[in-house]
Batch of 2 targets.
Target 1
Amino acid sequence: MTALSQEETTAADPRAVDPYLQLEGITVRFPGVLALDQVSLGVRRGEVHGLMGENGAGKSTLLKVLSGVNHPEAGVLSLNGVEQQFATTKAAIEAGVAIIYQELHLVPELTVAENLMLGALPNRFGVLDEKALIKRAIHELDRLGEKIDPSMQVKHLSIGQRQMIEIGKALMRDARVIAFDEPTSSLSSRETEQLFRIIRALKAEGRAIVYVTHRMDEVYELCDRVTVFRDGRRIETFGDVDGLDRDRLISCMVGRSISDVYGYRARDVGAVQLDVKGLMGPGLSEPASFAARAGEIVGFFGLVGAGRSELMKLIYGAVKPTAGEVTLKGKRVQFATPRDAVRAGVALCPEDRKQEGIVTIASVSDNLNISCRRHFSRFNVLNGRKEAQTAKEYIAKLAIKTRSGDTAIGTLSGGNQQKVILSRWLAEEIDVFLMDEPTRGIDVGARSEIYGLLYGLAEAGRTVIVVSSDLAEVIGVADRVLVMKEGRITGDLPKAQATPDALIKLALPR
Ligand SMILES: Nc1ncnc2c1ncn2[C@@H]1O[C@H](COP(=O)(O)OP(=O)(O)OP(=O)(O)O)[C@@H](O)[C@H]1O
Ligand SMILES: [Mg+2]
């Protein structure tokens, strides 16, 4: 029985296999939160060790312990059998640990070479041989198959290329431990493939790789072992990823079994609510037309860059269309600004929710209640009680991990911040929701809750558009799937015909 053999792997003493990186009893506490609770974990040379777990489980905190940002109040961290104390991030870098954070820390205005130097440290005589170091980084990247011009300004590079520079930085110091925090969340599929190729090469060189992700497929594709965290504790380490059952992995993460993450509920649809005709603008190669009904969930599938987000922005009035019209409930509308759109009952929850603006020092409740509509309401009256109530409701509905509604949002984990921003929109009185990658960075348990909320909205007669690059998600939640490729709509399939093969065929460039 596979389940049994997995248990045995867990029970085995990790020290028996001599891991390069060893954590023992690591405990990190924030005010009111035990972020890591006596965590022990070993990462071997030449392995990709996946870390999974719900939002707020402690994954990023663990990475910050490795990088000297967070300081454990108890526990021991050793590298190659030697105990380490990372008082500063510099100490961690010098010891050969590199973290590739999700928000990359590069300066867009500087060149690749200058950015590479930012993280470099003087040698022990205090002298820095800049040229040699840059040469090394570029050489290392080149060797891994990524050609980057060192004189290029970083702002002209794609997210994927920027990530490669972070990796270059790690390699120019010959980091032995490289940890990635949800690295693929903003990458195109081609960039993801490139990243995986490089990670495999790093692994073959005997480096110890830590890989945080919410994407199940990535674990199966890339990881040798996977450790699941829950509430700051290491719950289990699975040694045989290939033989690991998906449902078992999910239930280990969320602490209960979810038989069907999507839990699709069929429903009757009403009249056309949103009608888009010949809409044209930046990012599209052909005028776009489609209609969506009241009570309908329409998926928009496509590769990153296919023009889906651009189309949403045109509908919403965030970008001015050059041609075409939008009809809402039979009335022709023309949104000069997003504010107009929200007033008329159309909301866009953008894919880049972090940039769209959370106020990090403001509370969860304030962030959740900053809504365009209330903001611009005629009377502009803030109803404190109602806001607190709304905050409480969504904190419970989406299991947002926060001490209370009054906690500063900046102290929440990445995924929990996402949930707050998503609630901001779900709490609105809106007829047409345009949701761009609504579950990015959100754990599998909460995703299931979010899908439930989307069905609820549709059942109440709202129209929900879900833009997603996650094939399983579009197929799982949508009543109908539209596909985009290279700036145009290439297909419109009812649920029964929306198979993975059919969708991929319509989405892939020739
Ligand atoms: N600087 C901080 N101050 C206060 N609390 C913090 C701080 N950093 C993290 N926490 C808390 O520690 C817990 C673990 O957070 P962490 O960021 O490690 O989660 P995570 O597993 O990375 O989640 P996600 O998948 O959402 O990114 C959360 O409850 C979070 O709110
Ligand atoms: Mg995190």
Target 2
Amino acid sequence: MKGNFISALLLLFAIAICFLSTLKFLSMQKKEAIFPSRGLTSRKMLSSYFPGLKKTWGDTDVYLYEGQEKGGNLLILGGAHANEPAGFITAVLLIENIQVSTGKIIIVPRANNSGFTHSQPQEGNPQRYSLESPWGRRHFRHGSRLTNPVHQWPDPSIYVNPAGQKLSGADSRNLNRCYPGRKTGSLTEKIASGIMELIKKEKIDLALDLHEAAPEYPVINAIVFHENSADLAALALMELQIEGFDFRLEASPTNLRGLSHREWGDHAQIMAILLESANASHGRLKGKTSPALIVEGKDKNYTKAAKLGRLFVPYGEDGIPLKLRVARHLAAVKSILSNLEELYPEKRIEIKNMPSSSELKKVGIGPFLNPPN
Ligand SMILES: [Zn+2]
């Protein structure tokens, strides 16, 4: 009798643990709110460009800012990899601040929406990180590099992407290997198709894909450019270096297929640039991954690795905080736009209320976030 009672108690305990874990797991599917600036002119879903995404986890919000005067058309993509917060938060800051007077800016903050609904397996990553703002604490999802396997499964042993490149099976769920997409393909290939359709239907001239990578990864603090944007990237780099931001230029390899900076340029003939910042929470040398590591970017293993000359970026005791990584992305966007106007005056894009990189480095991200509305 006593044994039965203990077994029942243990069973109830196990059911309670399963219930609580399920709630926590399902909470990852909830999108955090974004509070757009008054400059927002319309909001759409990616499925309005490619209906094949309707009612799928690949459908995602698209924010449009259109000026009174005609000019260039810019697409900014954040969250192609949902575990690279600087790209996503840069997109959020732009959405919550900018007004466009000339040209058009379209922002997709969660390019791979499915990637935000789960965490990178076997990494012990936190589900969320938070940022203090004058209106209270805002929480943001820390997702995965890949599409959620619940939404796309199984992976093939070898993935041959739409551009014909052979890759590892898991890359079939990596949006930045699936361009130019397949309309009847996997969910990730459909998302890539949706973005290609947006580029064509909105007559995009220039597209920027915002990423992060590990400090030990060679393509870091980089501007990766398609050859049709070489002049633009080189001019932007010079301006950024004068402003004290050290970037390196990387030409998009012609034989590495499926990536945004290659296929956007080849298939839609637009200027295509990818930006990388250095994120310690992303690397192999990190200690425990925590919300603090994501936001403050401090890790003593990386300080040690920098002293041993193993990194491709400077990394001191202060680490590389999210505010600095976002400031770098914003400075690059601003510099690319000012040089776009230099090269192609008819493609001018004029933005008001762009968060200032120097201010951001001083006061942090919070003051640039909008109050809930
Ligand atoms: Zn990335």
